[in-house]
Amino acid sequence: MTVNAADEDWNLLLSFFPTNWKELAKATDALKGLRQDKSEENYIRTLLLHLGCGFSLRETVVRARHAKLAELSDVALLKRLRKSNLRRCSTRNMSWF
Questions:
Q1: Of the candidates 3, 9, 94, the residue with the CA atom closest to the CA atom of residue 52
Q2: What whole-number distance in Å separates Cα of residue 55 and Cα of residue 47?
């Protein structure tokens, strides 16, 4: 049985986030690539598919599209990832492993 990372329990993952995570994400530019009419949760979930699960950009957008989280290309995801602060945070934290 293959587990789809996009279908995992988002509410469980959110329970580990600070209660004001949306404000913190905005203040630290983690949501910088987010379009005004889009969901913060879907944006972060899509980025976490790539950063947290280690999927390639192409596989991430396919999974995000299949889960109805986002409709974007791998190049568009790369541009949003470059804009967000999550990439730098993730790279810094992974160096400790």
A1: 94
A2: 10
Determine what percent of the chain is predicted with pLDDT higher than 70.
Answer: 76
> What are the structural domain ranges in the chain?
32-97
Q: Which residue has tokens 């992974």? A: 94
Token pair recorded at residue 56: 């390639």
Helix axes of 40-53 and 57-66: crossing angle, nearest 10 degrees: 140
Burial of 23 (0-12, 13-18, 19+ CB in 10 A): exposed
Helices (H), the chain: 10-14, 21-27, 40-53, 57-66, 74-83, 86-94
- What is this structure's pTM? 0.72
Q: DSSP secondary-structure letter at 5? A: G
Give 23's pLDDT tier (boundaries 50, 70, 90).
Answer: confident
Distance CA(4)–CA(51), nearest Å, equals: 15
**28 pLDDT higher than 70:** yes
